[in-house]
Structures are given as structure tokens and as C-alpha cells.
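Q: what does this look like with flavin-adenine dinucleotide bound?
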Amino acid sequence: MKARANRTDRPMVVVGAGQGGIQAAESLRDEGWEGEIVLVGDEPHPPYHRPPLSKEALLDTLDFADIQLRGPEAIAAKGIDFRPGIHALSIDRAARTVALDDGSTLAYEGLVIATGGHNRRLPVPGGDLPDISSLRSIDDAYKFAAALGRAETVLVVGAGFVGLEIAACCRLCDKQVTVVERESRVLARAVAPVISEIYARLHRERGVTLEMEASVVEVLSKDGRATGVRLADGRILEADLIVAGIGLVPNDRLAKEAGLACELGVIVDTCARTADPDIVAVGDCTATAHAPGQPLHRLESVQNAVEQAKAGAAALMGREKPFVAPPWFWSDQYDIKMRSVGRSADHDRHVLRGDVANYRFSAFYFRGDTFLGADSLNAVQDHNAARRILDRGLPLSPEQLADPTFDIGKWARAAAPVA
Ligand SMILES: Cc1cc2nc3c(=O)[nH]c(=O)nc-3n(C[C@H](O)[C@H](O)[C@H](O)COP(=O)(O)OP(=O)(O)OC[C@H]3O[C@@H](n4cnc5c(N)ncnc54)[C@H](O)[C@@H]3O)c2cc1C
């Protein structure tokens, strides 16, 4: 790890002013960097929280003040030179400079790449029609909310979290909603089959039509406007509004062109370090392996962006503070909040506890006797307990959970009291 002075004549530069970028800039201060910090972001806005864009904010007035993470004054108060509306074009690692699209070049002492990702476009004829919506930025959300006001029927392509959250918002606005999904189950990449089944039931109960194992092969249009889609089986589904939620492509071009290793994103270790001791990368643009030899994966979550940013800022200052906590995230659909912690991907058994019929329960996942993680729907106490158990490595067993009198919260608190 490269030891670094608390100040040099070059600034620390953060490219990307989203969740990870603002955290990295602030964490550099927390880590003792006394020199200049420049935060460059290509959106015209100060950093903001993206999760509400597919949730309650879509139904409300989309007031930017409600989702802003830090205002310009708060950023300036930390001595951070925030430059909105500026896109970083390239990195010269030998000279330690970043070229910006305003024609200037920034020398850096250390560089944080926090460029997030962009939404994948539908890779079919008509998939690039300008009125196909997708939600990544506040400006996308303004555009979508306006189009939703004029629409009666909405077609959502993709039954991942963002797609299903949008579907729920549209139903709450009384729109007719169809979700088209290529896989045989909803949320297939993200959750266990048991949770997919429950979410499919929930959406059908609330009036969404789910078209499963259905691939869009063409977007149909009239006078340049999208009017519907053709499916692989030949059926045509018409809609006033089409929205695609088919995943994220990491913005790793800058890193790739600078010769940094990229696969699924900029490859970093648990301290957010790239192979260049002066460059870290954080958030949605990165891919990492949990342990040596484990496969690379990309986590797209607030927790990941924030924790990697803290680790990356520490690493730039020469300190090792790896981000190794179990991953967690949440999703809001209708009146149901799901909180997930850990992983379910490799489980070989699960235990359900609570009121499944009324969407107030948790699914706990095990591989053999090892507790891997839990998905909790409207069950925040279970989620908190599961986090504590995973954080401390407590020996939770399926047999304990099978006992209806077992109080997981009490057990977790007793086994690992707050210091
Ligand atoms: C609709 C939606 C709902 C979500 N819901 C949840 C949720 O419920 N729970 C959860 O945990 N997570 C959720 N997420 C994911 C979460 O918001 C992201 O994981 C998080 O924002 C990642 O932070 P980041 O800093 O890596 O990227 P971002 O927040 O995307 O910020 C990256 C910034 O970098 C800018 N940029 C890119 N390239 C350049 C360049 N070359 N020069 C300058 N600037 C550049 C981008 O324009 C952007 O402003 C959601 C995301 C979306 C879009």
C-alpha cells in the first residue's frame, strides 16, 4: 500500500458525482486528506439518491430536494470543489492527469473512478426509439412521469427489481400494466425461486399481467413513436408507454482505455484498489471477488457504493480498510418493503417464517448448516437479526428456525450484545 502525505500540490480527483463519488470525496477528508479535492460529475445536478426514482418519488411530485444527497453549500463546506456538467474524457496514468470535456486537464494525486453505469438498451430493431423510457437519472424520471400521465397502458420489459418497482408504481396510478420477461421467473438473477413465486403472485393479485418466457424481438412504431412490441412467438403487445428495465452496463470505458483490467466492470479488490496504486474505483462501475479465486461479481446497491467509497478513500491514503460486510439492499413494491442480506445463490435449503399469505415473513437460506442470508418482507426485525448474525458469524441453524417459539431477534441480541 502506497503511503501518502496529507497534502501535495495535486488534488485528489473523483470522477462521477453519484452515491459513490460524493462518499469518496467526503471520506478522503475523514481519512485526513488536507489538500484539494475535485469532484467532477457529468449530470447538471448535485449528487442524489437514485432508489426513489423507481419508487415513491415517481408517484409524488419528484421534488429534487427530497432526494438530494448533499447540496452545493454542504459540499463546499467540506472544501470539495464540485464541478457539475463536466464529463471526464480520458485518463493519462503516466502523467497522472484526467482530460475533461471543457477542454481542461486535471492533474491528480490520487483518482477515484465512480462513474456508475448506464441502462442497457433493448438490443432489437426499434429498441433505440427515443420514447422508450428507462430510469437511471432524475431527468429520466421527470420524462417518464410526464409520459405516464398521458398513458393508459404501460409495457415494462424486464422483471428485475427496477422493472417490478416501476410496474407497481404504474398500477398504483391505475394504469394497465404488462411485464414481459425472458426468464421463467421474476427477479431470476436476484432472489431465490421461493421469493420469485411470491412476487409473481403479488403482482398478479394487484392486476399486473406477467408474460413470462417471452422475448421481445422488435419494438413497433408509428410515425417514429413506439406503439408496442413483437414477441418471439409472434404475438404483438400494444402499449401507450414502453419502459425497459433490463439491466446496467458499467461505465468502465475510462478505466479500460487507461489500461486497467475490466471484466463486468473495473476489477478491484476488497479495498477498491485497481492495479494502479494511485487509482481506486467504487460503486456500480466495479466488479470484485469476495475472496481470492472466487468469481467476479458486480453489486449494484447503495451499500456497496458507500462502503467501497470509504474503503477506496482509505486505500488512497495508504490505509487498508476492506469492505467485507455481508451485502444488503431493499426494494419497495406496493406496500411491501423487502430487505435482503447476504446471499441466496448457493443455498440448498430454506426456512420460511411468518405470514407468507399476507407478505409479512422471512426466507432464511442455508447451505448445509451454514447460514447464507435472508430475504424479509415487511419483517424488519428479522432483517436486523439476520444482519447481526451474519456480521458476527453467529451459528444460526435451520433447526432453531423450524421451532415456531424461537425468537431470532432475542437470540441474536443475546448472542452478540452491543458492546
Ligand atoms: C431506478 C433505480 C432504483 C434503485 N433502487 C435501489 C434500491 O432500492 N436499493 C439499492 O441499494 N440500490 C438501488 N439502486 C442502485 C443504486 O442507486 C446504485 O447502486 C448507486 O447509485 C451506485 O452509485 P455509483 O456512485 O456507483 O453510481 P451513480 O450513482 O450512478 O453515479 C455515477 C455518476 O457518474 C457520472 N459519470 C459517469 N461517467 C462519467 C464521466 N466520464 N465523467 C463525469 N461523470 C461521469 C454519472 O452520470 C453519474 O452521475 C437503484 C438504482 C436505480 C437507477
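The chain has three domains: 12-118+249-316, 138-246, 335-415. The mean pLDDT is 95.
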